[in-house]
Amino acid sequence: MTPQDDVSLLAERLRAASRVTVITGAGVSAASGIPTFRGAGGLWNSFRPEQLATAEAFARNPRLVWEWYAWRRGLVARAKPNRAHEVIAAWSARFERFTLVTQNVDGLHERAGTRGVVRFHGSLWELACWDRCGGAPDGWTDESDLGEVPPRCPHCGGLARPGVVWFGEAIPAAALAAASAALDCDVCLAIGTSAVVHPAAGLVAGAGGRGAFTAEINPEATPATSSVDLAIPGRAEEVLDRLEVLLCPAGS
Ligand code: APR
C-alpha cells in the first residue's frame, strides 16, 4: 500500500470518529524551528539531560539550568505554530470529544488555538516556587524575558523553578487523570514522538488496549511503530495537511 492509501485510510477512520485523542512530541514543533531532543540535531546531542533537566541539577546549579530554559524560551518566543499545530487546532474545534496530550512544553499548540490541551510535561511559560512556600501552590505564568536569572518566587523571595516535569519527577496528577480518560476514544494518534519516555510512550498502546484505532505519524520508526494499527512514515506538517485536505475538501 502506498503512503497515500495509508493517509486515506486514516482519514476514513477519523471521518467515522467522534472521540479523537492526539499525543504529540517534539517532532510537531520541528517545522517551527524548535530542536527535538533526540535524533539528528537533537538537544540531548549537545546538552546533558542530567545536567539540565533534573531536580538534582537544579539544586546543584540553578543559574545554569535557568540559562538553558531562558534560551529555549527565547527560541520559542521567536517561533510560530506550523501547519501541524494549525490542523490539530482545527480538529480540537471540530471533533465532538477531542483531547490533545502533549509532551511539548513550548506552548505552540495553545498559540495555534488548540482546545482540550493536556500539558503532560508542563510548560516553559509556567514557574513554581522551588521551596514550595505555598504562596502559589499551582505555580504562575510568566511570559516575560525573565531578565536576571534565576527568577524569584514573588511570595517568599526564594528560588523559582521552571514549571516543567523533569526526569525522575511524577506527571502531575490532574494531567495523568485527563490523559488516562482520553484513552477511551475511537482514534488515538501519536505524532512526532520517539516513544521512549514513559509514561507518555505507553499512552497509544493503552488506547489500543481499550479498542481505539491507533496510528503513528513520524518520519522514523519508533518502539511504537510495530504495535500501532497504522504507521505513516512522514512529517507531521505534511501528513496532517494531506489529512485535512481529505477531511475538509476546499469549501466544504
Ligand atoms: N514530523 C513528525 N515527527 C518528526 C518530525 C516532523 N517534522 N521531525 C522529527 N520527528 C520525530 C523524530 O523522528 C523523533 O522520533 O520526532 C521525534 C522526536 O523525538 P524526541 O526528540 O525524543 O522528542 P519527544 O518524543 O517529544 O521526547 C519525549 O523526552 O526529553 C524529554 O521531556 C522531554 O517531552 C520530552 C520527552
Order of helices and strands: HEHHHHHEHEEEEHEHEEH
Helical segment tally? Answer: 10
**What hetero molecules are bound to the protein chains?**
adenosine-5-diphosphoribose
What structural class do the secondary elements suggest? Answer: alpha/beta
Q: Give me the side-by-side strand order of the main sheet.
A: 3-2-1-7-8-9
The beta-strand count equals 9
Shape, per Cα inertia axes: elongated
Low-confidence stretches: none
Largest beta-sheet details: 6 strands, parallel
Helical amount = 25-40%
Overall residue-averaged pLDDT value = 94
Distance between the termini: 28 Å
Strand fraction band?
Answer: 15-25%
Radius of gyration: 19 Å
Your description of this structure?
It is a single chain. This protein is of the alpha/beta class and 252 residues long. It has helices spanning 3-15, 43-46, 49-52, 55-60, 62-77, 83-94, 108-111, 173-181, 203-209, 236-247; strands spanning 19-24, 97-102, 117-119, 122-129, 140-141, 160-164, 187-191, 213-217, 230-232. Helix 1 (3-15) crosses helix 10 and helix 6 (83-94) runs parallel beside helix 10 (236-247). Bound molecules: adenosine-5-diphosphoribose (APR). Residues 25-27, 30-31, 36-39, 42, 103, 121, 192-194, 197, 217-220, 222, 235-237 line the site of adenosine-5-diphosphoribose.
Task: Describe this protein with a few key phrases.
three-stranded antiparallel beta sheet; 9 strands; binds adenosine-5-diphosphoribose; alpha/beta; 17% strand; 10 helices
